[in-house]
Design goal:
By secondary structure, the chain is an alpha+beta fold. The protein has five helices and 14 strands. The protein has helices at about 60-65, 105-110, 115-125, 135-145, 170-175; strands spanning about 5-10, 40-50, 80, 90-100, 160-165, 185-190, 190-195, 215-220, 220, 225, 230-235, 245-255, 255-260, 275. The protein has a ten-stranded mixed beta sheet with strand order 13-12-2-5-4-3-11-6-1-14. Strand 12 and strand 13 form a beta hairpin. Helix 3 crosses helix 4. It is globular and about 55 Å long. It starts with 5 loop residues before the first strand and ends with a strand.
Length: about 280
């Protein structure tokens, strides 16, 4: 078996985001930071989602995301970066991580499309019942056949929620005034399986990449890569995330809590290429 690891960056373009407080009013707090002595800003964010095709054509399995949760804080708290510039000082650190299951939301939205047998397999898949890769790929094929993965409003089966303390004064200012909002994970994996049923080649294996181009259709099936074991390295602020739901959810500042609304898919630009960085 190959010891190669690949690194993926979830980074595409999106726009038109507004920051509001709990009452729905626009938050104008740019000047608040300048006169405040608070040394760090605590944010809560949705880092990455399970069971969606990202806009750089990746698909994270729920069980692998669950297994990788502790890696955000052990053996050291992972950094919060800007644009994956890991040679720069981090702007903060992760202090807590957990996996949030959203299967109930999935069921409420798609219950009329899914048979009882399909629901059972999807539920076991989402709850990480020690599925083999082969079994997981069967469920992925089911989700494709149902049209779920093609639905722009589908937000996955669960997500990684991170709590982080931002300590860079400049970064705190940008989170507060809304310039820093969306993000991207830096993650390595020991495998990346082609989604095409007749192929299933591991791009990190001995044979290397297949001829299928991620983002293209082959016999009506979209090609994307399915990583195996996940080693999380960092979460970065980016302007155009590949995971459209990767964003800051809330933050606490000056004794007040602020919640940021979800993003409409109407503001998301579709991607037509895969972005993969080969880690040496």
């Amino acid at each position: 078996m190959s010891n190669n690891w690949i690194t993926l960056r979830d980074d595409r373009r999106l726009k038109n985001i507004q920051v509001v407080d709990k009452s729905g009013n626009s938050v104008q707090i740019k000047d608040a930071f300048l006169s405040n002595n608070q040394k760090s800003l605590r944010i809560t964010l949705a880092a990455t989602h399970a069971g969606i095709i990202t806009r750089n054509n990746g698909f994270y399995l729920p069980d692998k995301m669950r297994e990788g949760i502790n890696g955000w804080v052990k053996p050291y708290p992972k950094p919060i970066q800007v644009h994956h510039q890991d040679e720069q000082d981090p702007i903060g650190r992760v202090v807590a991580a957990r996996y949030i299951d959203t299967l109930d939301l999935f069921h409420n939205k798609y219950k009329d499309k899914v048979t009882l047998d399909q629901w059972t397999s999807i539920k076991d898949f989402a709850h990480a019942r020690k599925y083999s890769l082969k079994d997981s790929l069967v469920v992925v094929d089911q989700l494709l056949a149902l049209g779920v993965l093609q639905d722009p409003e589908y937000a996955g089966l669960g997500y990684t929620e991170l709590t982080a303390d931002i300590t860079s004064p400049e970064a705190i200012q940008k989170f507060l005034d809304g310039r820093y909002l969306t993000g991207s994970v830096g993650v390595s994996s020991n495998s990346a399986t082609c989604s095409i049923p007749k192929c299933r080649r591991d791009w990190a294996g001995e044979e290397g990449p297949c001829d299928h181009r991620p983002g293209k259709l082959f016999d009506g099936v979209p090609c994307f890569l399915i990583p195996g074991t996940l080693k999380y390295e960092e979460w970065s602020v980016v302007n155009g995330p590949a995971d459209p739901w990767s964003k800051v959810l809330s933050y606490s500042w000056n004794g007040q809590d602020y919640t940021i609304p979800m993003i409409s898919s109407d503001n998301i630009k579709e991607a037509d290429v895969i972005v993969i960085y080969d880690a040496a």
